[in-house]
Give the backbone structure.
Amino acid sequence: MNELDALFHGFAIALTWYNIGMMVIGIVLGIIIGVLPGLGGPNGVAILLPLTFTMPPTSAIIMLSCIYWGSLFAGAITSVLFNIPGETHSVATTFDGYPLAQQGRAGEALTASFTGSFFGALVAVLLITFLAPLVAKFALKFGPPEFFAVFLLTFCSFVGTGKDPFKSIISMMLGFGLAAIGMDIVSGELRMTFGWSELLRGIDFLVVVIGLFGLGEILFSMEDGLAFEGKSAKINTKVVLETWKKLPKYWLTLIRSAAIGCWMGITPGGATAASFMGYGIAKRFSPDGDKFGTGQLEGVIAPETAAHASGTAALLPMLALGIPGSATAAVLLGGLMIWGLQPGPLLFVEQKEFVWGLIASMYLSNIAGLIIVLSTVPLFAAILRIPFAIIAPVIIVVCAIGAYTVHGAMLDIWFMLLFGIAGYVLKKLDYPLAPLVLSLVLGDRAEVAFRQTMMGSKGGLGVFWSNWLVGTITTLALVMLFWPVLAFAWRKLRRSQNGAAGSTT
Amino acid sequence: MRLTMFKSFNKFCLRPLSGALLLCAIAAPALADWEPTKTVEIIVPAGAGGAADQMARTIQGIVVKHQLMKQPMMVINKSGSSGAEGIMDVKDAKGDPHKLMAAFSAIYTLPVAVNLPFNWRDLNPVAMIALDEFLLWVNAETPYKTPKEYLAAVKAAPPDTFKMGGTGSKREDQIITVALDKVAGTKFTYIPYKSGAEAATQLVGKHIESNVNNPSENIAQWRAGEVRALCVFSAQHMVYKDKITADQSWADIPTCKESGVDVEYQMLRGFFIPGGTTKEQVAYYVDLLKKVTATADWKEYISKQALKDVFLTGPEFVKFLEKDEAFNTKLMNEAGFAHKE
């Protein structure tokens, strides 16, 4: 019960007017950052970090962490409304969120996404409250083979999401190729930069995504006659309540995605990987899996819950071990040091007020966040009533600003336009875009983990079954990969058995 | 401009007794002949949250807190291709006095390793504000207490049994590993990680046997008693005498040389502005960094990070850079890290 005592003490710290004010400011800023593509959580927190140097550390981290929560919530807004992911972790949300919006169910999609996010965050905070030291120890078990196994699991849970597996593979390979541009940290050599210094930064995932999804979609709509389809959705409290009524049906998806998110946040796989894995696994195991991609609420809940759970859980290794579980956590970690706190295993012992103040604020700010984002839904939905001829150019401008902001480079805008056309062509030819995006975001990390493993094992693949942890994940990944084949064989076996049984009687 | 010059003249010169006035009259014009006219960007050729980034953000914080500059200051991470992105960005910004680059030894090692068309002489050196140390760390649960014991165990094991983790490939951490192999006759398997923080966690999780992290990268794990410092790769002991663990301070750690392992390596932490800028512009930043490093906040920061307090500027800094570059290039060539066509 020590944790409970500490937690209530934490609430006492977090519940001052000053801290609540910081919380609200943080969330509102976070929502703005989350809505603007290109400007993500890490940039937002980094830009505002110097402002907090004169604040007490607890208030400072409350405000900065709230920016993060706000951006986690709000990344879904543009994904659902315009097919443009506001944040990297909301790419998977577009797959079902945007079709829902096209059917005039944007309100439902947003409510489901925010509520799923909230649920994910809540599970992760509970985990941090009661199991922090234990879970932190678990994170240490992850070496290169374990990391690779996790990435493999993410990829395998996604293969076969398209109709044509070969098109999926081609799309995935394109992503791997793009991911390999820039420095290879294992050999310390440059790859595919062709001596061009602009390519040193690599091709940023966000630029590609803004082009493929955002611009590609606009091109598509133009072909269909310059109008958004059936999006004049009404959004009021009734929609929110009705959506909530539907959610308990998806309890299994909620829990599964929350668990995936916590796992990926702690290990650290990151919110983006978590959202893809959450979506992929939900698709595979949901009874409605075949309908994913056509506008299923479950397909919105699955990635959002996982992303927010992962984003929240990423703070655990930061607090307990001093390792950042995400890019934003890395910036916060730098902040801790500047505020004069030493992150690491002793933080829980030496800075009780700070740690528990933060944890208590995570409960409060996620509740506040949910209320704030839900109340902004009508505002954002109103945008959809603006005629296409006005909104489309605005979206293109926002896309361009987003692509430019990522690195402050003009070239990225050209890349964005290029990928916009590529997105249109690929979609016309029925190539799935999800595998491309997935391998672009995880490709180089998976590659590095694999090569680190091979360096350690001197080329032996047996290392992927060298202990129960990595062995389980690898086996699980392979089962996922061959699931369609296995399911087919199982059905055939059962049928032939039934047939055999039938003939003897 | 004249007015501001006179103001600082006032502050620095008129306050002391008039006897010093003559001396000041000579020194003052260099201080304030130029001032930033828009936002100054600190370009960090490394990721957010790392050592270079933390230093840049601390300096930004100090500048804001003590109002050392009228224009705002912004930290921008350009970490692509192990920092080559940031380095080339500053090189290409010829004549732009509103960019300040946070430099470390990548300015010598990257051009050698990947044939980057860059030389630090393309830029205008401002000042070196600290030196970062490197230490040999092992997991605290292993029995090794001295570098000799540890390296003897590495040597006794079959080659490539022991794994040394570090940041990136063909950079400072791997240079030190190769130097260790040469001096001690060992054969480590070097595993490159994305950051020092990752190498630190991997050491605690026993996925590697040792690392050569900077003090700031391993301090959290050291304080918690999870890793052990065997020696520091520098000529003298470090100066910080406050106890960090139950019984050890940074100053208590022996040097590698006195422990019989003759390897030395330190890394500069300094600042450059793009080439084609004027003397006055360099002088402005030298003065700014002098003010920053004189604050109590800065002293506290470097003692927390266990950085060596050094301030070099002008010809002394250039001399240091030349020597340090020759040293790094030699080590890179000896290790076979130079770019091959």
User: Anything to note?
Assistant: Residues 106-139 of chain A form the longest helix (34 residues). Residues 253 and 286 of chain A are 8 Å apart (CA to CA). The longest strand of chain A covers residues 182-184.
